[in-house]
Design a protein that fits this description.
The complex is a heterodimer of chains A (159) and B (798). Helices cover 33% and strands 16% of the residues of chain A. Chain A is of the alpha+beta class and 159 residues long. Chain A has five helices and five strands. Chain B is 30% helix and 23% strand. Chain B has a seven-stranded mixed beta sheet with strand order 3-5-1-12-9-10-11. Chain B has a six-stranded mixed beta sheet with strand order 7-15-14-13-8-29, sandwiched between helices. The longest helix of chain B has 28 residues, at 553-580. The relative contact order of chain B is 0.13. The chains are: A alpha+beta (159), B alpha+beta (798). The interface between A and B is large, with 58 and 58 residues.
Chain lengths: 159, 798
């Protein structure tokens, strides 16, 4: 058994005191040690973006980041988007209403990516959002409804 | 809404019932199941040679290793077609003495964690003596070629399927043609590449001796049959569950050697075991498809009528035979369906499947049809140019207009709208406006092109159709029974509280099937779709069914659900009539109540349900004290159809193709949920765009796959995808009781040909036609430079 080191993570406002191997990725720590399995692993080499989380507000590939690099940082995952169990985040609501997901495996990455960007750039236009969204892969939707949902969410978030 | 009017859910773009949990990150995929269990983890030791003999497998004593020798009593996978031209080969669960492709599983390491399993993998040393490999179909069939499997080939070496059709009048028709148009088309190898790679978690229950496999699957029941037969256990000893599945596209309908190994090891060690496939493994070993080359000749009259079609179709099917559909799936579908939506009088075809030392092929959305349609639609465009006929006119002249139509291969095409979809698409495309823009751009040195693609999509075919293709399946057991897939069964029940549960044998994986089936059922029962719980993908909880593949679930599982819900609705009307007086036919089911139309008297469905179970003495006709109905549907199949039109601009410097417009005129019959149908089209077209321009699995000349990451294999991002405009036609065919036709594969089937035709149209001033896909920037640029050099030489000579 490799040596583990204690680590404190703040995820979606909750504190997690865990112990991980230094080589453990943030994605694995979130999934295996924090029980937050909404963050998905599609390639584990930083291309597909299914594992995107916000680290101090910035979108990160959690498969390319060691958990220990997130020590004391504020991490936000798909589970942390909705304000409560009754209400969806505007980006989640828009994905639902606009059929922005099919198998749902890439969805958490797209939601976190778009939510993070729109919260900082509420005036983003479609061209800008297409560029942002082009960092992630979806195999089911052809992206059309992801773009549509994102622009609907942007409009709601501006209000 | 008006309380007295039954609500109609069919046809509404209802947001999916599946979505809220997934949107919150509460989806439950196989890796999530594994993460909640302190199970052991495995990794597969894989071949680094395309062909070779295993001399030794060694590992340090502390590494827990399983090799083929440890798989006591395990039979190989064997999928067979009963056809005289079919040659069967076995697929061992782990390679025994020979390896046949890079990535083939040889051994399994078991460790406490995924990371430790990966560490252990590095400590296993496999010594393989390389043997000669065959890396292309041409090499494979050459006289004296090395044999991928040491079995008897009645024809050419390595030829495992060699189907032929030759209609009696072919030779005469071919001889009297005014024009023979000859082309060759082809597609590179591609991966379905679901975003969730394969995964399996096998749990062993010591008290019952029973195993539960969670795996990412499209056919849970068939998978259970396959694994149980390989392991020699009763099916009852194994429960198979496909939880949320992160995309399938066909790739997850085939039985995985790895899944068999995981269940075996779990039972052998009496421990829970998980395997989570890496993306690299997925590219190397999780099924390829599309590597096909078709030589096609069309015999036309001077007026453009296609009177005879000849095809020589070659499919490189890799090293093993996929279960259950076999490596006949691509060549035999191509042989049967090549003429597509066209009235081809006479037909002569040879269609071969050839094994090579590469990853085995298995179904991927569209199967061989993207290449079939590429062949027919390039043929139409080339013929139109050679005969001096408009490309729309030549299609109109040959599209099937009378239904049902019997094709020269014996398929019966039901009511469709080939002409209408072509006209709808060309009207949207505004061809004369495009011609003006194209001419202006050409004067400006820019290359715009427009391409048309018409196709028929065979969907929803059950046992009768599959029995005709003769594909009984047996495992490597002498006495194994043959099997013909096809039907779907559902069980619809109303519980004492009035809650409705629909258990289905089909197994959705992103199609929103639970929502669309709930819509169908609720139209019969007068309930809201939220009131129907659909249970799928668990062999313990669902009736035996074949699964979700081949654009079938809405047609077949939908038909079965409709039948069951009609029966339940009729029973509720009978019970209500007993309470309210009058006849069952006087009762409407509206918003959870049974209402007598003439008197307005009503009773809640929940009251009828509760009394059925709890006061059985009140049941009027000594009927069963239950509200449970089985629906079975097993149709012969129905053809959806569509016309795609692509507009492109080709950058003559870089060879890059920009798709500037994409139109789809689709006829999928009745649309149960139009949003979901459009979503299927969008996603299908994206995979067609990938096929046309970007994706290619490349083996080097040593037989090593060099595209093993998403930095080498390039699925389109949003930046590469055009906005897709869709027009719907809705031909209602008697071949589908719901009126719905399948629509899962059409986007993928039609888009590559439309794009190839568009690029060829754009580059027609340079004399360049695109026949082989993907048309990557490198290939386009090379063709443009060659054309420019030719022109320069001709000018120098002149």
């Amino acid at each position: 058994m490799s040596q583990t080191i204690p680590l404190r993570l703040y995820v979606n406002g909750d504190r997690y005191d865990i112990a991980v191997e230094p080589r453990r990725t943030l994605a694995d720590a979130l999934r295996e040690d924090c029980g937050l399995t909404g963050t998905h692993l599609g390639c584990e080499h930083g291309v597909c973006g299914a594992c995107t989380v916000l680290v101090d507000g910035q979108p990160m590939r959690s498969c390319l980041m060691f958990a220990v690099q997130a020590e004391d940082a504020s991490v936000r995952t798909v589970e942390g988007l909705a304000p409560d169990d009754e209400t969806l985040h505007p980006i989640q609501q828009a994905f639902w209403e606009n059929h922005g997901l099919q198998c749902g495996f890439c969805t958490p990455g797209f939601l976190v990516l778009a939510a993070g960007y729109l919260e900082e750039h509420p005036d983003a236009n479609e061209e800008e959002m297409r560029e942002v969204l082009s960092s992630n892969l979806c195999r089911c939707t052809g992206y059309q409804n992801i773009v549509k949902a994102t622009m609907c969410a942007a409009e709601k978030m501006r209000r | 809404m008006n309380m007295s009017e039954p609500q109609t859910w069919t046809g509404q773009a209802l947001p999916r019932l599946e979505d809220p949990a997934i949107l919150r990150g509460w989806g439950n995929y196989v890796a999530d199941v594994a993460s909640r269990d302190s199970c052991l983890h495995v990794r597969f030791v894989r071949s680094n040679q395309p062909s070779g003999r295993i001399l030794s497998i060694t590992a340090p004593p502390h590494v827990k290793l399983f090799t083929a020798a440890d798989l006591t009593g395990v039979s190989p996978i064997r999928a067979v077609l009963e056809r005289p031209d079919f040659v069967a080969v076995d697929t061992p669960i782990l390679a025994t003495d020979l390896v046949r492709f890079v990535g083939e599983p040889i051994a399994v390491v078991v460790a406490s964690t995924e990371a430790e399993a990966e560490d252990a993998l590095d400590l296993v040393v496999v010594d393989i003596e390389p043997l000669p490999a065959v890396l292309s179909a041409d090499q494979a069939i050459a006289s004296g070629a090395p044999l991928v499997h040491d079995v008897e080939f009645p024809g050419d070496p390595n030829t495992v399927v060699d189907g032929r059709i030759h209609t009696p009048g072919f030779d005469e028709a071919f001889a009297r043609a005014d024009k023979i148009v000859t082309i060759q088309v082809g597609s590179a190898r591609q991966s379905a590449m679901p975003l969730e790679a394969r995964a399996a978690h096998a749990a062993y229950d010591r008290s019952s001796g029973r195993s539960t496999l969670h795996a990412t699957l499209q056919m849970p029941h068939m998978t259970r049959t396959g694994i149980a037969d390989c392991l020699g256990i009763a099916e009852d000893d194994l429960r198979v569950i496909a939880p949320d599945v992160g995309g399938g596209f066909g790739a997850k309908m085939t039985l995985a050697r790895e899944d068999v190994a995981v269940v075996f090891i779990s039972r052998a060690m009496r421990r829970n075991i998980a395997w989570i496939e890496t993306r690299e493994e997925n590219f190397m070993a999780s099924w390829h498809s599309r590597e096909q080359v078709y030589d096609v000749e069309g015999a036309f009259t001077a007026s453009g009528e296609l009177i005879a079609l000849r095809g020589d179709l070659m499919c490189d099917v890799g090293a093993y035979c996929c279960y259950p559909v076999t490596y006949g799936v691509e060549p035999l579908m191509a042989m049967a369906e090549l003429p597509g939506p066209y009235r081809v009088g006479e037909y002569s075809v040879r269609s071969r499947g050839v094994i090579t030392n590469k990853c085995p092929i298995a179904p991927y959305r569209g199967v061989s049809r993207p290449v079939q349609v590429l062949a027919m639609e390039r043929l139409m465009d080339v013929a139109a140019a050679e005969l001096g006929i408009d490309r729309v006119v030549i299609r109109l002249k040959n599209l099937i207009t009378e239904f049902p139509h019997r094709s020269p291969s014996g398929l019966v095409l039901d009511q469709a709208s080939h002409t209408e979809t072509l006209l709808a698409a060309t009207e949207l495309a505004d061809l004369s406006d495009f011609a003006t823009r194209q001419a202006a751009a050409r004067a400006d040195g820019r290359y715009l092109g427009l391409g048309i693609s018409c196709f028929a999509e065979r969907t929803g075919y059950g046992t009768p159709a599959l029995a005709m293709r003769s594909q009984p399946i047996t495992l490597g057991l002498e006495t194994a029974p043959t099997i013909t897939p096809g039907f779907e069964r559902v069980i619809l029940a109303m519980d004492p509280s009035g809650g409705v549960t629909l258990r289905i044998g089909a197994s959705p994986h992103g199609q929103g099937l639970k929502t669309t089936l709930a819509q169908l059922v609720c139209d019969q029962l007068g309930l809201e779709p939220q009131a129907v719980r659909v249970i799928a993908s668990d062999t313990d909880a669902t009736p035996y069914g074949w699964g979700s593949f081949a654009s079938r679930a809405m047609v077949i599982a939908g038909g079965a659900s409709l039948l069951a819900s009609r029966d339940l609705a009729e029973r509720l009307r009978v019970l209500a009539a007993d309470r309210l007086g009058g006849l069952a036919s006087d009762i409407d089911l509206i918003q959870g109540s049974a209402i007598r139309r003439d008197t307005g008297g009503q009773v809640a469905l929940s009251t009828l349900a509760r009394d059925t179970y709890h006061n059985a003495q009140l049941i009027p006709d000594k009927g069963e004290p239950a509200l449970e109905f089985t629906g079975v549907y097993d149709p012969t199949g129905t053809f959806a159809n569509a016309c795609h039109i692509a507009e492109v601009e080709v950058d003559s410097e870089t060879g890059a193709v920009d798709i500037t417009r994409f139109l789809v005129a689709e006829d999928a019959g009745l649309l149960v949920n139009p949003a979901i149908v459009d979503g299927q089209i969008h996603g299908g077209v994206a995979q067609g765009v990938a096929n046309a321009l970007y994706e290619e699995l490349i083996y080097d000349d040593r037989g090593i796959l060099i595209t093993t990451s998403l930095m080498d294999y390039l699925p389109p991002t949003v930046a590469e995808m055009p906005h897709i405009e869709i027009a719907h036609l809705q031909t209602i065919s008697p071949q589908s009781i719901t009126g719905a036709k399948g629509v899962g594969e059409g986007g993928t089937i039609g888009a590559p040909a439309a794009i190839a035709n568009a690029i060829s149209d754009a580059l027609s001033p340079l004399g360049i036609g695109v026949f082989h896909l993907p048309a990557t920037p490198h290939r386009i640029r090379t063709a443009i430079r060659a054309a420019q050099n030719r022109t320069a030489q001709e000018e120098a000579i002149a």
